[in-house]
Amino acid sequence: MHADLALKMMADLFSTGLLVCVPVLGLTMLVGLLIAVIQVVTQVQEMSLTFVPKLFTAAVVMIAAGPWMLRTLTRYTVQLWTGIPALF
User: Fold this and answer.
1) Domain-located, residue 19
2) Is residue 88 one of the residues assigned to a domain?
3) What is the pTM of this model?
4) 57 and which of 7, 16, 31, 85 could share a cystine (Cβ 3.0–4.6 Å)?
5) Which domain holds residue 41?
6) Long-range own/partner contacts, residues 59-64 (CB < 8 A, 24 or more apart)
7) pLDDT at 63
8) 31: closest CA among 52, 56, 54?
9) Distance between CA atoms of residues 55 and 72, nearest Å
10) Are 37 and 23 in contact (CB under 8 A)?
11) What is the dihedral of CA 9, 58, 65, 33, to 10 degrees?
């Protein structure tokens, strides 16, 4: 395997992983930021106040974006496996 092929495969792996993680991480980070602002304004420093909404948001995003995430990962895996004969 040539170095440029290995680098391309790693770049594809990381870009696919980042693309799949962005919806969950982005929305939970946004909810965490909004809760933090509310905590600063109201001066209520309760740990469960930040944890529960972020957990709920992550679950809702996983349910809503789950099929798309699975299709993206499946497409990447099929592309990877069908490209194996071209390596030899």
Assistant:
1) yes
2) no
3) 0.79
4) 31
5) 3-82
6) 61/23, 61/24, 61/27, 61/28, 62/24
7) 96
8) 54
9) 23
10) no
11) -80
